[in-house]
Amino acid sequence: MPHPALQAALDARHDLGKYVSLNLRFLAPDADRVAQREALLADLTQTRRGPGGGVESAPEVWAACRGGLPAAAPEVLQVDAAMKHIQSSLPALLADRLDDDALAALAQAARGVTAALTALTRRLKDSP
């Protein structure tokens, strides 16, 4: 059985890191604004889908995952910052009030969550 912090990181990487940028990964580099917004909507507002049809947003999934992780880990602090940006941008994303630069920044935040959780998992696996 992995160390509890490693298990929490593995769970966070799977439950959040895998899905917070899933649709973004399949976008062409020159995808139009509509496609980028739709990918972000799916990734950030329907991050986890339950068997009963319920959905959770990226910030909701992060809130559920965060507790078992090392609070002062730089990767966790990176995800905290990204989630703060995502949370504050969700109303404008839902209302289609984000310009191209804001959409790009939101996509970068989502990708940053994936990268940070992958790095955290890797670091915890490699630590004694």
Tell me what you see in this structure.
This protein has 128 residues and is mainly alpha-helical. It has one domain. It has six helices and two strands. Strands 1-2 form a two-stranded antiparallel sheet. Helix 4 runs antiparallel to helix 5 (74-94). The longest helix has 27 residues, at 100-126. The protein starts with a helix and ends with a helix.
**Distance between the first and last residues' Cα:** 14 Å
Largest sheet properties: 2 strands, antiparallel
Radius of gyration, whole Å: 15 Å
Q: For the residues shown, what is the average pLDDT? A: 94
- Uncertain runs are none
Q: SSE order in H/E notation?
A: HHHEEHHH
**What topology, given as strand order, has the largest sheet?**
1-2
Beta percentage is: under 5%
Q: Give the proportion of residues in helices.
A: 55-70%
Number of strands: 2
Determine the structural class based on helices, strands and strand pairing: mainly alpha
Draw up the topology in text.
Blueprint (H helix, E strand, L loop, with lengths): L3 H14 L4 H4 L7 H13 L2 E2 L5 E2 L1 H9 L7 H21 L5 H27 L2
